[in-house]
Amino acid sequence: MRYSMVPSSDTRPALRLQDVVKRFGTYVAIEAITLDVPAGTFVSVVGPSGCGKSTLLHVIAGLLAPSGGRVEVFGKPLTGINRRASYMFQQDALLPWKTVLDNIRLGLTLRGQNGRDAMENARNWVERVGLKGFGDHYPYQLSGGMRKRVAMAQCWIVQPELILMDEPFGALDVHKRLRIESEILGLWTGSGKTVVFVTHDLEEAISLSDDVFVLSAGPGARLVGRYAIDLARPRQLMDIKADSRFHELYRNIWRDLRQEVLKSYERTS
Amino acid sequence: MNEPVKQRSALIVWQLALASALLFAWEWGAASRRLDPFFFSRPSEIVLRVGQWVGTGILWMHLSITFTEAILSFLIGAFLGVLFGFALAGVPILAALLDPYIRIANALPRVVLAPIFLLWFGLGIWSKVALGVTVVFFIVFFNTYRGVREVDGAMIDNARMLGASHAQLVRHVLVPSALTWIFSSLHISIGMAIIAVVVGEYLGASRGIGYLIGQAEGTFDTTGVFAGMAVLAAGVLVVGGLVGRLERQLLRWKPEHAGVGVERLG
Fold first, then answer.
1. Nearest C-alpha of chain B: how many angstroms from A46?
2. pTM of the model
3. Is the per-residue pLDDT at B1 higher than 70?
4. In terms of domains, do A147 and A244 share one?
5. Count of structural domains, chain A
6. A80 shares its domain with A186
7. CATH class given for the domain over B48-250
8. Those residues with Cβ within 8 angstroms of residue B254's Cβ, 6 or more apart along the chain or in another chain
9. How far is Cα B120 from Cα A187, in angstroms, rounded to an integer?
10. pLDDT tens digits, residue range B140-188?
């Protein structure tokens, strides 16, 4: 089976990028990025806006082919769509003509799983993401936060080994965001899945991740640094920002990130 | 009764009052010879004539012919429109190649085709269906084309990431997106189909409401012309209501089509 439920015994990195370049015509979006993501970890990619974070995620997803370099997923070179990954998009990507339940089970439907088990599975996910009683609603009837929960279930139900998230909660207010982030951590803990989380919010990146990658200002974004986040797990997101170690990490990373943010200001103004 | 319903019934009362006032003025004008009944007929006679048509059964025969033609032209025109819409949206080269021809064909007044269709398909229903098809085709074609081209890129990427093959992408994303546009234009395309077939009948037929109106006009029978118009108007109103219902059912996932009682959850 392609999608395993148990933590993968794969010891190879979930993701390995080697000198990955992405150009659009003469515009260089990302330049020679090399990094690896150990299987089962939660990593974040931060950088100033417009630095090519989304482009990088699209390359990892196989939605964009790199212009140069190699992408390996669990040791195998990536060609075409990354079949071991799910992608949670920044914008609303639910199908408006399908109900919550049908949206959640879309991945199963596409795999030809239409039976009672698939239906039961989808119903479970409706409850797991806290949308009990909303299975027959259409996306327009839900709030932004609820739609994000549907998208979350849609991604997780296919049991991918790798989950890519592109600033998924950027549009939510701070409190809703904190709640849904805790739920994401709850789902991830013990699942053995690898998460690559893109955000421009350093606090969010630190509080969720095992590792934070900082990208330089675009165009031609490079990897500026990689920072191990040694905060103990499980984490209480409500209280983590009061932790002194959190502040220390924040200061260290912000020192580098700040420069890139300033550079991106200069370039855009 | 809640506020919107109350407002709606008040509106209907006013609409009926307006119609009654106009009809009364017309009837009074004709009775007092201020309007010449030869040119303007009068409401009471028109009602009588419609009653006669209903009594002899010829009304249903003509009406059913007209609506059969309209439905056939809608179905055939919509089928061809969807087919071409998808083909051209999927193959940009084809769209670029055919673009000027489609523009020319769409700019052509369809009425001028009626005599040719009469020659090709005869006096029966098919010459009218052909005329209706040329009208419906373009409406559905443009809507399908737009629906396919303007589908949200994130939706496509999302479906691909969830494992959609090309065929599944068409089925789960592109077709429903195009259908949204087509359903939104149902009112226009069915209305236009009715107009086209009535014009076709008017120009040459042996049956149908358009034929009925044409016959009456040929004998200076203004009462017959107005009676035909009244029947057609009533028919269009009924069809419009049915289409509205169908649209609400098919597009129930869209906020502006949701019925009363479905609230937006904050």
1. 22
2. 0.80
3. no
4. no
5. 2
6. yes
7. mainly alpha
8. A96, A140, B180
9. 68
10. 999 999 888 888 899 999 999 999 999 999 999 998 888 888 888 888 8
